[in-house]
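During the reporting period the student researcher (J.K.) took over the structure-prediction task from the postdoctoral fellow and processed the backlog of single-chain submissions. One of the processed entries is reproduced below for the supervisory committee.
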Amino acid sequence: MKNPKQTWIIGLSGSEWDDVVTYRVTGTKAQVKRHLAGIVKQDKKESSTFDYGDDTVKKVREMADGRLYAGTTYNHCHADYTATPEMEPVAL
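J.K. obtained the following structure tokens:
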């Protein structure tokens, strides 16, 4: 299968946030890119201080380690949206 569905860990954080939000999604890389761009588009709609961001699939970046990244910049802060392919659990 060329672009199989897999489980991804989504992480949302920002310079003005007190915590990191994480959740799981299952989908292809293309679906997850659309999801990240959609989050940015929604934040853009909801903010009057939005400057710029990765609000299209084309702008969502693929990192060398397989993660997907989108970001936004506001006039007073920034936010980061990351999707990481889920790996096998590590025994501690």
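The committee noted the following: Residues 6-85 form one domain.
J.K. will present the remaining backlog at the next meeting.
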